[in-house]
Amino acid sequence: MLVVATEGVPAVYEGHGSWSKCVLCIRRLFRSGISGDELAAMKEIFERDRYATLAGAKASLPDLESLGYQRVDK
Protein backbone atom coordinates (compact mmCIF):
# COMPACT_ATOMS: atom_id res chain seq x y z
CA MET A 1 0.00 0.00 0.00
CA LEU A 2 1.35 3.44 -0.86
CA VAL A 3 0.24 6.62 0.83
CA VAL A 4 1.09 10.11 -0.37
CA ALA A 5 1.33 12.59 2.48
CA THR A 6 0.44 16.11 1.39
CA GLU A 7 0.45 18.06 4.64
CA GLY A 8 3.65 20.07 4.76
CA VAL A 9 6.30 18.59 2.48
CA PRO A 10 4.85 16.09 -0.04
CA ALA A 11 6.29 12.61 0.43
CA VAL A 12 5.58 9.02 -0.55
CA TYR A 13 5.35 6.43 2.21
CA GLU A 14 4.96 2.69 1.93
CA GLY A 15 3.47 0.27 4.41
CA HIS A 16 3.13 -3.51 4.34
CA GLY A 17 1.06 -5.88 6.39
CA SER A 18 -2.14 -7.83 6.72
CA TRP A 19 -5.56 -6.52 5.74
CA SER A 20 -6.47 -6.11 9.44
CA LYS A 21 -3.39 -3.91 9.97
CA CYS A 22 -4.34 -1.96 6.86
CA VAL A 23 -7.86 -1.38 8.20
CA LEU A 24 -6.48 -0.02 11.48
CA CYS A 25 -4.24 2.39 9.57
CA ILE A 26 -7.08 3.50 7.29
CA ARG A 27 -9.37 4.16 10.25
CA ARG A 28 -6.68 6.32 11.89
CA LEU A 29 -6.07 8.29 8.68
CA PHE A 30 -9.77 9.02 8.10
CA ARG A 31 -10.54 11.38 10.95
CA SER A 32 -14.11 11.81 9.71
CA GLY A 33 -14.69 8.05 9.66
CA ILE A 34 -15.08 5.43 6.96
CA SER A 35 -18.01 3.06 6.51
CA GLY A 36 -17.91 -0.72 6.31
CA ASP A 37 -19.11 -0.51 2.70
CA GLU A 38 -16.21 1.81 1.82
CA LEU A 39 -13.75 -0.59 3.46
CA ALA A 40 -15.24 -3.55 1.57
CA ALA A 41 -14.91 -1.68 -1.74
CA MET A 42 -11.33 -0.72 -0.89
CA LYS A 43 -10.48 -4.35 -0.04
CA GLU A 44 -11.74 -5.45 -3.47
CA ILE A 45 -9.50 -2.87 -5.13
CA PHE A 46 -6.48 -3.92 -3.03
CA GLU A 47 -7.01 -7.59 -3.84
CA ARG A 48 -7.32 -6.88 -7.56
CA ASP A 49 -4.73 -4.13 -8.11
CA ARG A 50 -2.50 -4.25 -4.97
CA TYR A 51 -3.00 -0.53 -4.42
CA ALA A 52 -5.83 1.94 -3.98
CA THR A 53 -6.25 5.69 -3.80
CA LEU A 54 -7.49 6.83 -0.40
CA ALA A 55 -9.32 10.04 -1.16
CA GLY A 56 -10.02 12.03 1.99
CA ALA A 57 -7.20 10.60 4.09
CA LYS A 58 -5.49 13.26 6.20
CA ALA A 59 -2.07 12.65 7.68
CA SER A 60 1.04 14.52 8.64
CA LEU A 61 4.44 12.95 8.14
CA PRO A 62 4.68 12.13 11.88
CA ASP A 63 1.22 10.46 11.66
CA LEU A 64 2.44 8.15 8.91
CA GLU A 65 5.68 7.36 10.71
CA SER A 66 3.74 6.55 13.90
CA LEU A 67 1.74 3.97 11.90
CA GLY A 68 4.97 2.26 10.82
CA TYR A 69 5.13 3.58 7.25
CA GLN A 70 8.56 3.98 5.67
CA ARG A 71 9.46 6.91 3.43
CA VAL A 72 10.39 5.68 -0.04
CA ASP A 73 10.96 8.86 -2.05
CA LYS A 74 14.29 9.97 -0.58
UniProtKB/TrEMBL annotation:
<protein>
    <submittedName>
        <fullName>Uncharacterized protein</fullName>
    </submittedName>
</protein>
